[in-house]
Each structure stands twice: as C-alpha cells, then as structure tokens.
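Q: Sequence in, structure out?
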Amino acid sequence: MSVRRLSFGLSRQVWIVEIGVFLNMLGYGAVLPFEIIYLHDGRGFDLGIAGLVVGLVTGIAVLASPIAGAAIDRIGARATAVAGGLSLAAGYAGLAFAESPPAAFAAAALAGIGNGALSPSQSALMTALAPRELRHRASAVSRVAVNVGIGLGGAIGGLVAGFGLRGFIALLLANAATYVVYVAILVATVREDVRVPSVGGYRRVLRDRAFVHFAVTNIALIAVGWGVLAWIVPPFAKDVGITPGLIGLLFLTNAATVVLAQVPIVKAVEGRSRVGALVLGAAAWVGACLLAVLAQGAEPTLAFGCLIAAAIAFGLGECLHATVLLPLVADLAPLELRGRYMASIGLSWWLGLALAPILGAPLLAVSASLVLLVAAALSGAAILSLLALGARLPVGLRSVPRPRTAPLPRPLLRRGE
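A: Exactly. Output:
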C-alpha cells in the first residue's frame, strides 16, 4: 500500500496539525468529566459556584467567537489559533491553582476566550492547509482525532483523578501543556503569506442567503444530532432502568461508531450530493430518536438494545454531517471573510447545543417520549430546509469533490486560502 494512500491524500503538514488536534483533545478529554468534581470536592466550592465556573468557559466562548472571526480575517488563522491556544493553556493552568472563586472565574474567562478563538481559527486553518478537493477528508480525520483523543483522555483522566486533589491538578496542568504543544506545532510547521484585505465584515456574511439558510438549519441539526444524545438520552435511559455504567457504554458505542465509520463514509460520498449527505444524516437522527422512543416501556435488555442502536445511528449521522459542514462553509466563504464564516457556523453549534437542554429538559418532565418525538420532528423539518437549500447552492458547490488522481503538490498555507 502506497504512502499516499495511507496518508489519505493529505499532506505531511496537515497530518502534523491533526496530531496536534489529537493531543489537544487527549488533554481536554481527561479534564472534561472532572471539572465540577475538582472544584467542589478538591477546592471546596459550592456546587452552584462550580457549575457557574464551568459554564463561564462556554459563555465566554460564545461572546469571543465573533471577535475571533474578525481576527482570523485580519491577522490570519495561525496567529489567532496560537493566541487561543495560549489563552487556553493559561486558563487551565490557572484553574489548577485556583483556591478561591474569583481566581477560578478569572481562569475560566481566559479558557473561554481561548476556546472561542481556537475553534474557528482551527477550522479556517484546516481549510487553508488542505486543497479544496481534500477538505472533506481533512475534516473527517479531525473528527476521528477528536473522538479518539476525548475517549482515551477520559479513560486516563479517570485513573489519575483517583489520586484526589493532586490528581486533579496534574490533569489540569497536563491539559494546559497539550495546548502549549499544539501552539508549538503550529509555529514550527505552518507558514502564512500576506492576507487579502477584508471589506464589509459580518454585514456581507448576513447578505449571503445560502450561508445564512445553512447556518440556521444547522442549529436544528446540532440540537438533535449532538444535543439529544448528550443531554436527553442519559436521563431518559435512567428512567427506563438503564444503569449509569451502561449509559456510559452508549457514549463509547457512539464514539466507536464515528472512529470506525468516518473514513469509509467520507470515501462513499465523494462525488455525490452534499445536501443528500446532510439529508441522510438528519434521517439517521430521526431514526435514532424513534429507536430511543421504542425503549419506553420495554424490559431493560430490549430497552438497552434500542438505545445502543440509537447511539450507532447518531454516530452515523454525525459522520455524514461532519463530512459536509466545514468544507461547504469554506467553499461558500469569500477568501477574505473565511474567518467570519467559520465563526458564524461555530456560533450555530453553540446555539444548537444550548437548545437541547434548555427546551428538552422541561419537556422531559412532561413526557420522556414527547421530547424524543419533538426532536425527530425537528430533524424532519431540518430535512425539508436542507432540500430547499439545495436550490440556493451554486451548481459547482453541490457535490462533495472527488480528489484528483494525480499527485498533489504539498499545500502552503496562504492567508486568503
């Protein structure tokens, strides 16, 4: 098997950045499940304060993301990613030594600023490093790196957290170190050329009807495809008699599905309709929600089987969605506004993730089956919206690109590409 085939057609530079993404997620995955436990048990914070500190990271990220989009267009994706990574490193290192709520809030704010900057700049960086016909492959590899990193990180974190406060501090410092390593990789391996001046800012983004249509639809897609599994399925599963250990297995199954299916799916959709892939992914989420509904009233073994099947369906839908999302945004974006486009689609992620627990949790109190049926209907409505989007997309952007068979030159990151 040739080196080119093993590399998935991606350049050495892209793979180096993907390794950085993996290390980044390895540290983050080790910390994520234990943040509130650390602040409450390790530092003695009230649970409400601990929740506010952790929530501040996401809240500040939402506010920082649009600013980061403008920064990407002005100073470049690499420079913004470096600033974001350093801010995250400082934030998590600060949390490791935060002995009072004010210190923890300050550290969380730094981490939130970094999170809001790193996410869109990393997306813009990947689209610049990979040629257009390979961006979907780079996006697929990133998804695998994220899932493997978070999965392994969580397992390692569980072992280290067993050492108490010292273990929690070690995890936070290790996470901070992964961001520093990631920044070092970017500085050492990525070069940037002169950026194309941007004109019009977010007003031009809002005038792009196809993109705005896609971004609004994406809020619903994320709410169902990611939010339902993360926040609705666990309490639903508990109510139908599934133990916490088996609930954890649902998430492991979902992550394993993404790791195993992402690459075959991205190859299968090459040359096919982007909207078709998104519709198929949304249909998988409709099926996942209906499978979960079948668990209601079933005996525990059958209920768990339904939820396992739902977790797999959620994972397959994620693979199809991830194959299309960022490459399509990159194609829709003018070169000089790519940062703002990436920040805007990132904002649709945050809003979709927030929608599931805010609207879903109250519905759970009324009827567990109702919230899943509403989610299925929301995904169905997103399918109709996607079908309407197809007519708005330029003809040249309607299909997932097929990679060229000839050897590709190693891409050099240009600030406007």
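The two ends are 31 Å apart (CA to CA).
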